Amino acid sequence: MSHPRSLGRLLTNLTHWFGPAMARPRTLEALRAGLGAGLALALSGLLLLAVPDTSASHGVSGFLLIAPLGASAFLLFAVPNSPLAQPWSALAGNTVSALVAVSAVLSGLPEIPAIGVAIGGSVLAMALLRAMHPPGAAVALATVLGAPMVHDLGYRFVLTPVLLDTALLVALAIAWNRLTGRKYPFRQPSDSNPHGTRDRPANQRLGLPAEALADILQRYRLSANIGTEDFGRLLAEAEAEAARLRFDGLTCADIMSRDLATVRPDTALSEVADLFRRHRFKTLPVTGPEGELLGIITQNDLIQRAQGEALAHHAPFGAALAQLLARRRDTPALARDIMSPPGETVLPEQGIGILVRLLADGGKQAAPVLDNGKLTGIVTRSDLLEALARIPLWSPA
User: Alpha-carbon distance 206 to 356, whole Å?
Assistant: First the structure.
């Protein structure tokens, strides 16, 4: 008789080895994926039924859904960030697998050897094409098991139904994922600099380049699990989280400017320019009567408006700027005409780690601090740099 403690340890080990390896998905995400996959397959089937196949051989039409498409639908709708689910993987993977399997069937091999050749050949072909797509192996198996239809259709089976079905599903997956807020096809590495120079973006200069990230994924044989860009995003988020933990205890309220110069939406741009000159600010908040934040004006907003006026009136930039800021204009330009949306804001009690991401790069010069929906302070890049300079960054926490 087993000892209860030994039995409990065995059950614990079994749960550890064979239990769920994934976190529970969010309910809305599961509904989004399930609804999308179901609708896409149903719509694909209806579209195929509506198309008359005038080239049908012996009454056998290629306009039909094939079973492996269900597995493709799972990947494209449930895990659209996976490299296995990308359009190239799905289209090339399913198609080349069908091509290998049709060749095995038409070669006259018996069914069992043909299955081995089709599956093994499809996996090898997908790997060589960098189009790993697990349902491709199912396509190969289904092709051999459906040998009578393959004999009737020949290599046309590769185009219809396999390629046609997959193309329909990919098109519907792109539409559905974008409609429901998912990025598909997934993000690709981009070294473009928002300032138009050849330098890598500032938030990437201390991180690993895309080539190094891809090499790490290849080294650990994980390139089929996550894309290079998403891997970089995960690392960056982990670094940002580490920064938030490192600076925990120092809040936005501790370093923000409280004595603010603000303007109203109906403030003339001449007054806005005076405030920029007087205080040497780069950013001015636009607030409402109750202190609510309505927008942000930067010095660049003034410059861009003046450039637009110069182009519209074929005038020199200096003259256009002077005219824009003239106090005696009949219809003076106002703050509301050039202000931008506030963008992302922070709370007074949030740690300054969040500011590293907000102010590290891009056009954001300052982060507004809101308390109960009202502007209570602002943190500029200078404020953040001053705070970071006073922290022994690499000392033990």
Answer: 13
The Cα 63–Cα 168 span in angstroms is 12
Look at residue 371 in the predicted model and tell me its pLDDT: 93
User: What's the rounded Cα separation, in Å, for the pair 50 and 60?
Assistant: 16
Q: Among residues 15, 73, 10, which one has the least CA distance to residue 44? A: 73
Are 279 and 375 in a shared domain?
Answer: yes
CATH label of the domain that carries residue 280: 3.10.580.10
Instruction: Tell me: do 271 and 236 sit in the same domain.
Output: no
**Cα distance between residue 58 and residue 149, in whole Å:** 10
Whether the CB-CB separation of 177 and 86 falls below 8 Å is answered with no
Residues 170 and 65 in one domain: yes
Radius of gyration of the chain (CA): 30
Structure tokens at 322: 């002077």
Q: Are the CB atoms for 67 and 138 separated by under 8 Å?
A: yes
161 upstream amide cis, omega within 30 of 0? yes
Q: Which domain holds residue 237?
A: 202-246
Could you tell me if residue 189 is inside a domain? no
Q: Is residue 317 part of a domain?
A: yes
Residues 6+ apart with CB under 8 A from 58: 152
Q: H or E segment at 229?
A: helix 228-246
- The verdict on 138 and 261 lying in the same domain is no
Count: domains in the chain: 3
pLDDT of residue 124: 98
Per-residue confidence (pLDDT) for residue 191, from 0 to 100 = 54
| 274/70 Cα distance (integer angstroms) | 64
Q: Tell me if the bond preceding 185 is cis, omega within 30° of 0.
A: yes
- Tell me: the pLDDT tens digits for 53-63? 645 555 555 67
Q: What is the pLDDT of residue 287?
A: 94
Q: What pLDDT score does 397 carry?
A: 44
- Concatenated DSSP letters for 114-168? HHHHHHHHHHHHHHHTT---THHHHHHHHHHHTHHHHHHHTTHHIIIIIIHHHHH
pTM of the model: 0.64
329: left (phi over 0), alpha (psi -120 to 50) or beta: beta
